[in-house]
């Protein structure tokens, strides 16, 4: 699903140049649930941004589902993001004046799906994350865990190839974190490819493979015995 | 552009910022309001001035005489200059090819006019048939003085509508006899004049019979001509000016008046005056447009400013949208549409308010130089176009900024 070869990325700040990614080689097969770990400054967020086409690498190749991601203009990048990727953020990033249903329906709006179908599908995905009765609520009326569930429903709504989660439990307490991970595991069980960036060990062990980043290179990439989140919920 | 969700979003953001929206809208609305009122008044000035001019033909040349103020060729100053038929004949012949209408007038002072028990004082003049066109008199009933009346010395009269109303009330004056200083004249026509009541309170008699009855001999009080109009207004003005000067010179020579005696004989031409006034109106119009557009620009800058703030506030939201697959064009569309909507809505509000004020107050405004201010449909449409363009301008820079927002920057957790 994802093939990355010799990826480099530097940031320039004034006269200083910061080499963040120093040659990443990394493949993800369909249906995998991978966590990317590393301390802050290890380059894990940069890697995720490149994977999410929010940022572009300086060197190296990135192929997503057979499509080379290179020199995209904004329009094409937006189209690919919409078609291939679902984002889950640490701070949820819901649009605060839109109801849960409308938030979930938004990626489908950019896909050009008719309003009626959008709302129907959005309700379906909200039901899937256990928020069937909360559709008309605004994000401000939801708890942190509920907001993240809405965000997950939104990420699923565009039926992406890959889900990218950037610290999905970073703003949540332990119990809620496990609930969210349980949901993510459930989605993975259905066959969706998911990448999770985290710095929490327990969360990482709830995935099937841990990729450890340090100072811009992968120092360890190994499968793990998956801990089911269900038992803690 | 026409999808429900986009509109819902616009209304939602506007509703959340009621005061801000109201103040922004107010600046645009007052801009348009002021523009409409100014344009209304410029058309009012135009109406007023035009109707001042319409009481007589605009291409008139008017000759009248007074007393000499300078001695010339052995003649003393203080001599009364009296125009005669031969003077009129000379001017008519010399400038025949340039003149359209011509009339010589003989006024009867303090013209007391009576019909049965009703009497009134009106300006009574003996005239030639062409006077109808020079005075811009519209015949309402009957006819004007004609050449047979003049040649046959007929005792007939054409009266103004005001005279008819005063003396005859509802009665039809045609074929009735009025008496002027006790001499009976048969009314053959009633005329209207765009100049209004003052111009309609006159009585016209044939020049010959007026003079015969009031011992006028071959005296003329004044004479009027109109110059032939050419297609080009400026040419017509130049012609009118030249003819006026030539007539003045001819008459001064014939009547032995010093060339620099400006009081003894006056030859005025309305066309030159008209041109001055019309160019003044054009200037006033241009100034009013300038002020109005300036006010709108101030309003539009306000809208643009607010939109920039809105874009700033919504940076994160725009980042989210882009991450979810919004193409730059859809972001630009979103911001532009909001800007155009705010300008359009408040602008139309100002336009309607302005039109309403003109509609209600306009008809009461009827002073000599400002008459019935109004805005025609074409102007209203023009202002609407200005609004749309202004809205687009107001939204362009903010929208461009919004499109440039990088999702990765917008989504960075602070």
From TrEMBL, chain A:
Domain of life (superkingdom): Bacteria
GO cellular component term, pick one: membrane protein complex
Keyword field: ATP-binding, Nucleotide-binding, Translocase, Transport
InterPro entries per UniProt: AAA+_ATPase (IPR003593), ABC_transporter-like_ATP-bd (IPR003439), ABC_transporter-like_CS (IPR017871), MacB-like_ATP-bd (IPR017911), P-loop_NTPase (IPR027417)
Entry GO MF terms: ATP binding; ATP hydrolysis activity; transmembrane transporter activity
Record keyword Nucleotide-binding present: yes
SUPFAM superfamilies xrefs: P-loop containing nucleoside triphosphate hydrolases
Domain ABC transporter positions: 2-233
Family, similarity comment: Belongs to the ABC transporter superfamily. Macrolide exporter (TC 3.A.1.122) family.
Protein's name in the database: Putative ABC transport system ATP-binding protein
Species, as recorded: Winogradskyella jejuensis
UniProtKB/TrEMBL annotation, chain B:
Pfam families with a match to the protein in the record: FtsX, MacB_PCD
Source species of the chain: Winogradskyella jejuensis
This protein's UniProt keywords: Cell membrane, Membrane, Transmembrane, Transmembrane helix
GO molecular function terms noted in the UniProt entry: transmembrane transporter activity
GO cellular component, one term: plasma membrane
InterPro entries in alphabetical order: ABC3_permease_C, MacB_PCD, Macrolide_Exporter_MacB
UniProt protein name: Putative ABC transport system permease protein
Family: Belongs to the ABC-4 integral membrane protein family.
